[in-house]
Amino acid sequence: MARQFFVGGNFKMNGTKESVTKIVESLNAADLPANVSVVIAPPAPYISLAVEKNTQKTVEISAQNVYTKASGAYTGEISANQVLDLGATWTLTGHSERRTLIKESDEFIAEKTKFALEQGLSVILCIGETLEERKADVTLQICARQLDAVSKIVSDWSKIVVAYEPVWAIGTGLAATPEDAQETHKGIREHLAKTIGAEQAEKVQILYGGSVNGKNAVEFKDKVDVDGFLVGGASLKPEFVDIIKSRL
Ligand code: 13P
């Protein structure tokens, strides 16, 4: 079964009204393939702007983070329901920058994922190992642990896309090789087959993230378990369109 090619753009904490408008307008003007799903995640203050400016049917807007509750006394948190109210349809959860800098636990991330799905958002669930973990040869155990926290409390994975983002490859210019990414993605899918069942595991799109750019994206073309990318830095640049078109 063919899984649809999927490209996410995570703007992280970058941009202004002007630059976000420019990025969305350049996507509007691009001749994007009809069979590629594109999801862009601007900073929360610009979600509304991105939703309003976007005219591409294949482009959807995402939050970068949401909380585990709809509303209440949670100063500074982002509500999945408010994200939906703005017209966004996705959120990221578990990005390594939140796991490491904000110290979010596997369990907290799993709860956010569950709550976001229950409210009606689709979720890009980010996982991946640090350099130390890679050196210790525990990449798949780490990914399994991060996934298991979610599969323990979420049984329907039809609205989840997994993004494998090795921490050592993020923002470093050192992307994983297509062979390494394929091997890890295959391991992730095999693990998911054991926990959520082979049928669901076969359908889950697994994205690679970490220093993907307009040049190297095409090198992953024949990797059967690499179903797309989650792009950071390059999603702010015109080359993002080249990444979206890298499977043509
Ligand atoms: P870079 O593409 O900048 O390495 O970032 C990847 C990432 O963290 C996307 O979520």
Automatic annotation (TrEMBL):
Keyword Isomerase tagged: yes
Pathway: Carbohydrate degradation; glycolysis; D-glyceraldehyde 3-phosphate from glycerone phosphate: step 1/1; Carbohydrate biosynthesis; gluconeogenesis
Pfam families tied to this protein: TIM
Gene Ontology BP term (one): glycolytic process
Keywords of the record: Gluconeogenesis, Glycolysis, Isomerase
GO cellular-component term (any): cytosol
Family as reported in the entry's similarity comment: Belongs to the triosephosphate isomerase family.
Protein name: Triosephosphate isomerase
